[in-house]
Amino acid sequence: YLVMGFLLITMGSFAQNSVENPGFETWNAGNPDPWAADGGAITLSQNTTNFHEGASSCQVVFTSQDNQYLNSNTFSVTPGDPFVASMYAFDNDTSGRARLCVIFEGADNYYGEYSEDLEEWQLISYEGVVPDGATEAKVQLRFYDVSASWDGDCQVLVDETGFVVDNTVKPEPSNYPTDFAAAASGVSANLSWADATGDQLP
Hints:
This protein is mostly beta strands. It is built from one helix and 14 strands; from the N terminus they run αββββββββββββββ. The protein is elongated and about 65 Å long.
């Protein structure tokens, strides 16, 4: 029993965020290291009054209708690993919106959902699998104009970003569905069963 328990522990790994400075808590000379802005018309600043968690968020202001970018550190990935990419955005400006992306080296990128105009923090997330051929990745936050309401600039706050791989070995389910039955109904069949219950479901 001790040997089996040791194997289960060593087979699994703790979920860890690959993004450095994910909550924009650390700033150096006006920049949230190691995040890097790109696009030529984007300004970053630390906002210590409106944040989702921690003590600060990243305030993004862009002044161009060309796409603007905020890139995380680059990290190694393994094809087939399940991951969750995420960010929180506070987008209360109709002039633009933010988007969550994952840029893979050696494979197709992921381009995710856009933020919506809300007077509150919103979670944007994606669950996926590292694609075949990928060797490295980075989280990229993209910022776009909304041409119909563009007024020359846009402000969006971002916080709590992440790229988390979880290879933890899950425990056995508490039980499984039971009492499967099928009853003929013309050319169809009516199926029934009793759902599984318990803390760990299949």
